[in-house]
Write a structure and sequence with these properties.
Layout: H1 2-10, E1 14-20, H2 26-33, E2 56-59, E3 66-70, H3 81-88, E4 95-100, H4 106-117, E5 121-126, H5 129-139, H6 145-162, E6 170-172, H7 183-193, H8 196-205, H9 211-234, H10 250-263, H11 268-278, H12 282-286, H13 300-310, H14 316-325, H15 336-367
Parallel strand pairs: 1-3, 1-4, 4-5, 5-6
Antiparallel strand pairs: 2-3
Helix pairs in contact: 3-4, 9-10, 9-15, 10-15, 14-15
Keywords: GTP-binding, Hydrolase, Nucleotide-binding
Domain IRG-type G: 12-193
Organism: Seriola lalandi dorsalis
Length: 371
Amino acid sequence: MIQEHLEQQNNIPLNIGITGESGSGKSTFVNAFRGVDNRDGKAAPTSCVETTSDVTPYPHPNYPNVTLWDLPGIGTTRFPADKYLQHVGFEKFDFFFIISADRFRENDVKLALEIQRMKKKFYFVRSKIDHNLRNAERSQREFNTEITLTQIRENCIQGLQKQGVESPQVFLVSSFELHLHDFRLLQETLERELPAHKRKALLCALPNISRGIINKKKEVLQSTVKYYASLSAFVESAPMPGFTVIIADLSIAFKAIKMYQVTFGLDSESLQNFALSAGVSVADLRAVMTSPAAAIEINKDLVTNVIYYSSGQTLITAAEEAYRFIPRFGIPEAMSLPFITTHNVLSISLSMLAEDAQRVFTRALALNTSV
């Protein structure tokens, strides 16, 4: 039952439709949301002209249950708005992003009204707000970033309302600098409006664009520790020579720590992509990491070292969790030791990786002189 629960939670599908007129920056937004640089082999192809002619899925590189679907620009399809949704397979999407580079046009509004009629969620995204701000700064004598952003947002909302869109939600983002402007507000809105069982999939897949997201990821992962610890308590294994505190099944810790690493973007591939997009070196980011599980290949030797390290740490919190959780399953008291050990190993690994993710984020902001 525990294994089935974990597998089910880790495979909840989340399908996101990305649409808009040709040249609006859909593909760049798809890549940014997935934490993939435009130059990466896994990236959606980008160009100043329309590059999407079919419905194209782009699974998240670490969470394949989360898929962003790059849809053909509505201005390029042979179908009107109502037929367009049938053409792209409307039913499978949890929500839509309607992307625009500057203002939302007639085709965007027609599509929004059709999605609204079918009672699905949709969000308007101005994806090139960095360009808009630069243009405004060049043309205004007394330029103010916040005033300009407010004016752009209000102008978009009023224009959409005049055309019949009810309570439009407009977010101003830069696909190249997600940590700026409205992306954090967009993330919070999605968390609030998504069904509860979809929120974990969203949070784990989001790029680390704020300290708040990193903290929320840690909370989500911490809630699973007791389940992995219970699996360990159930598994029969021989004691590990040289250890007074043992873990029942090394593969359980291996799987969990690997998941923590990729969720925080601290595996080698994710770290490389982050360094590339932030314009900093991987070496600079590695220099601030302290966890033995950060930016290296997770293997059983590494997990054994982590167990050895954590054996000297306090077990009080894990023990309290054990005695709260174990009685629900009728686990004999003798099985509490593997539970406590695994709980301790995973909690310490999770905390160290979360702290490293915070350090990497802070270091990248400090080194990126454009911020």
